[in-house]
What we know:
By secondary structure, this protein is of the alpha/beta class. The chain has two domains: 35-178, Rossmann fold, CATH 3.40.50.720; 179-344, L-2-Hydroxyisocaproate Dehydrogenase, Chain A, domain 2. 45% of the residues lie in helices and 16% in strands. It is built from twelve helices and eleven strands. It has helices at 2-14, 18-24, 46-54, 70-78, 95-99, 123-140, 153-167, 180-194, 229-240, 242-250, 258-275, 319-343; strands at 35-39, 61-66, 85-90, 104-107, 145-148, 175-177, 205-207, 214-216, 281-288, 296-304, 307-311. The strands form three sheets. Strands 3-2-1-4-5-6 form a six-stranded parallel sheet, with helices on both faces. It has a three-stranded antiparallel sheet with strand order 9-10-11. A two-stranded antiparallel sheet has the order 7-8. α7 (153-167) links the parallel β5 (145-148) and β6 (175-177). α3 (46-54) runs parallel beside α4 (70-78) and α3 (46-54) packs across α11 (258-275). Oxaloacetate ion (OAA) binds next to α10. Residues 179-342 form the Lactate/malate dehydrogenase C-terminal domain. Substrate binds at residues 113, 119, 151, 185.
Amino acid sequence: MRSSLFRSVKTLTNSTSSSHLLRRGYGSEAVPDRKVAVLGAAGGIGQPLALLMKLNPLVSNLALYDIANTPGVAADVSHINTRSEVKGYVGEDQLGQALEGSDVVIIPAGVPRKPGMTRDDLFNINAGIVKGLCQAISKYCPNALVNMISNPVNSTVPIAAEVFKKAGTYDEKRLFGVTTLDVVRAKTFYAGKAKVPVAEVNVPVVGGHAGITILPLFSQATPKANLSSEDIEALTKRTQDGGTEVVEAKAGKGSATLSMAYAGAIFADACLKGLNGVPDVVECTFVQSSVTELPFFASKVRLGKNGVEEVFGLGPLSEYESAGLEKLKPELLASIEKGIKFANQ
Ligand SMILES: NC(=O)C1=CN([C@@H]2O[C@H](COP(=O)(O)OP(=O)(O)OC[C@H]3O[C@@H](n4cnc5c(N)ncnc54)[C@H](O)[C@@H]3O)[C@@H](O)[C@H]2O)C=CC1
Ligand SMILES: O=C([O-])CC(=O)C(=O)O
C-alpha cells in the first residue's frame, strides 16, 4: 500500500485537473464513493490519521468526530485540495450524523498509556468509551467495517463484538483490531538488522496487540536473511516492546501517534481496496478466528467486498515461535474474556 499511497499522492500533487483524476483514484477505473469516519479525530492519532485519510483518493467523505476540538481539525484538513469532502462533528449529539452512511469507521478514541502502565491499565476508561461508540455504530452504520485502534485491542475488539451481538448487527467479517503497527515495526527492525531494503520486507505478526501476545514470525520474513537466534530473539522482544519504547521516549506525553496514524491509514486503505473489489489485499489483523482455540486472534487476512474474505493459518513456525505461541495464549484469552464480561455486565 505504501507505494500506491505515495503514487496517488504524487498523482494528486502533479495534477492540474485534479477532480477528474481524483475520482479515478488509484487505477484507470472510476472508484465508488466511500465514507470514512474517524472517532477520536482530534487526538494524537486522530489528527495525523485524518490528514492521511484526506490524502487517500479512495475516500469521498471524511467524517471527523470527537467529544471536543473537531471543528478546528476539520476546518484545517478540509482546505487540502484532495477528493474528499470533510466534515467535523463534535459531541454525542452529532455522533449519529458522523456515522450515518459510513463504509469504514476507524476508532482511535480513548486514553493512551503513560510510562509504567500496561495497555490493560487503560481498560477501565477505554472499555466504556468503545462500548458507547459501538452502540452508536450498530444503530447508525451497522454494515460499516470497524477498525479498532483503542487499547487494549485484545479486549476492545471482543467488547465491540458483544455490543454488536446484543444489537443483532454482529458480522465477524466486519470487525478488525488494528495490529498493523506491529507489522510496521517488525518490518523496520528486521530491515535494519538483516540489512535488506525496508520497502521489500514482509513479516507476518500474529497473536494479539500487547507485550508477549504480539508474535512476529521472523522465520517467515522475506527477503530471507541468515540471522542468529540471538538476533531473532532481540528483534522479537523489540517488536513486542515497540509501544513501550515510544511511551518511555515520550515520557508522559502519550504513546505512538504518528507511526500509528501511518499504520491505521495503511489498514483503512486495505479495507477500502477490499470493499472496492481489488484482489489479493492481505493484512495481518485481530479478528474472530478459528486459527487457534482462542475466539479472536491476529493473523493474515484477505480483505474483500464484505470485509474478511479469508483468515489464513499461521504457516510453519520455528521452535521459538511455537513456544511463544503457547506462552501468549493464556494472557490473550484472559484479555478477550475480560472484554466479553465487561460488555455483558
Ligand atoms: N492499536 C494500536 O496499535 C495503537 C493503539 N493506540 C491507542 O489509541 C488510543 C488513542 O491514542 P491517542 O490518539 O494517542 O490518544 P489522545 O488522548 O491523544 O486522543 C484520544 C482522543 O479520543 C477522544 N475521545 C475520548 N473519549 C471519546 C469518545 N467517547 N468519543 C470520541 N472521542 C473520544 C479524546 O477527546 C481525544 O481527542 C489509545 O487508547 C491508545 O492506547 C495507540 C497507539 C497504537
Ligand atoms: O504502546 C501503547 O500503549 C500504544 C500502542 O498500542 C503501540 O504503540 O503499539
